[in-house]
Amino acid sequence: MKELLKITGIFALLLAVIPALSFFVPQRTFAEDISAETVQAEAAAEFSETERAETSAEIAENEENDTLKVLDFTSGQVLELSMRDYVIGAVLAEMPATYCEEALKAQAVAARTYAIRQREKQRLAPDPELMGADISNDSRKFQAYFTPEQAKDFYGSGYEAYYKKAAGAVDGTDGLALFYEGEPIVAAFHSNSGGMTESAEVIWGSPVDYLVPVESPEDKNSPTYLEEEVFTEKEFRKKLEKALPDADFSDPAGEWIEIKETSSSGTVTEMLAGGEKLSGTDFRSIFSLRSANFTVVYNADEENFYITTKGYGHGVGLSQYGANAMGENGSDFREILLHYYTGAEIKEY
Known about the structure:
Helix content: 25-40%
Number of helices: 13
Low-confidence stretches: 1-45, 47-57
Number of strands: 14
Order of helices and strands: HHHHEEHHEHHEEEHEHEEEHEEEHHE
Strand content: 15-25%
Distance between the termini: 27 Å
Structural class: alpha+beta
Radius of gyration: 21 Å
Largest sheet: 3 strands, mixed
Shape: globular
């Protein structure tokens, strides 16, 4: 029972960190809303041989068709899908279908890895809210997934071509997933980084061996790489006062913000706002910024604050834009995945 409770806590991550519709909202991809507590649990996650044995018989029942039970959160119905159909729907929802074949293959492996890890979690510690399913199509909590009808609505006349492209990426990586020390990894990804990806430790407070900074220079060419947000002094102060009720804004506006520390990848790790300490991730949330890699400049003449962000998303794991650039430059999906997930293995599950 103790081990089961431990696993339940460990897998809580998979209900909190989701690749949520990066195609629509690329800043909110996998692990975007993760908490430090759940990442610390995930970093320590282990599926023991005993636990695997306890669930192997149940999983084996689905091996022939490799099925996945998906809760449709809109209807409450539990759908039984083949893994192939599920991953195709996830790829269509999570990555622009205009991306190159090798990038789509990399996304397919990441999506499949997420699904098998989530399925194993449910075999070990079922979540009552899933009503017997392995996963949900609620993209606020789980990996995004398009039903065929949703994909047709979204892609319109391009549906057939994009479906064929996504299906080819899924079939071209059939049965493959990412592992680290024998366990399926947390395949975090984001739209694009600030030129170098970030570590799980910087963003979520706990180290994960395969989620460490790597170079992704092509991200600087992304149309969403840089964004400037402008706030009036009044707007800026109002947002901070709501989030930080103990903050003191009696000093001149130009002294309200002080960035104390940034990571090697550019993420703001410590700052002061009205004398209150907070992280760049906290500040990002307050102002709904694209990333926690930012600068803040006050223009006294205009009485405006200018916030400039680099990258789109938390920056951990696979950069989707970087993956596409690598693929267009000749890298295959294996090279892409092993670049962004340091020390991971690609093998059949």
